[in-house]
Specification:
Strand order of the largest sheet: 3-8-7-4-5-6
InterPro entries: BBS10 (IPR042619), GroEL-like_apical_dom_sf (IPR027409), TCP-1-like_intermed_sf (IPR027410)
Number of helices: 4
Helix content: 25-40%
Organism: Setophaga kirtlandii
Number of domains: 2
Protein name: BBS10 protein
CATH superfamily of the largest domain: GroEL
Distance between the termini: 24 Å
Radius of gyration: 21 Å
Number of strands: 9
Order of helices and strands: EEEEHEHEHEEEH
Oligomer: single chain
Strand content: 15-25%
Shape: elongated
CATH architecture of the largest domain: 3-Layer(bba) Sandwich
Amino acid sequence: FAELHAAVPGLPLASSRVLPGIVLRRDFAAYCPTDGELRALLVTEPLRPALTAPGVEFVVDSERQYQSSLRWIAKRTEALMKHLQSNDVKLLLSSVKQEDVVIYYAKLYGVSVVECLSSEEMALISEITGVSPYVPFGDTMDGEITETAVVTFCQPLLLVSKRCVHVGFASVCAFQPHCLILCGPVDGVNEQHAAAVQEAFTMLQQLFKTVDQ
């Protein structure tokens, strides 16, 4: 329920509504508008390539070597974004903050980015889509990326002064997510309404469980 409702203070209760899909309470780190369905990728690690393996020290002993390392990182990141573009990936959903070089090349190749998603949000998206997080920089960047989710729409959403991301997924199960936008004059009222709605859903869940048995 926590991931499927958003409380918005400062608006009358009558402004409450139900939206298809889910609302991610983050702003786009990069936004490239697209029409129609698109493919999304889940990531749980930085897409900026590391210069060394974990636990291995990398020593830079000259400015020239340092600049060469930055160029290698940029080329590798650009190659990854080209690979995503060739696989029609238009949206990155990341649980970690991405480096500026990733955001730069994402914008350049028309890939929207939403970062710093919670583990609960990532788990919900995986449950809806059946997709697991993508592991970048494997042995090769050739071939099709199979672990992508189908997104029916992806757009900015403004809830009073907070910028959010409103996204719809093609579900692989019977569950069709909708998000409840709960409005109220102050946070305390919104919390009471949210608790009441959650209790109502819990009661209905118990009722249907009894009927099924």
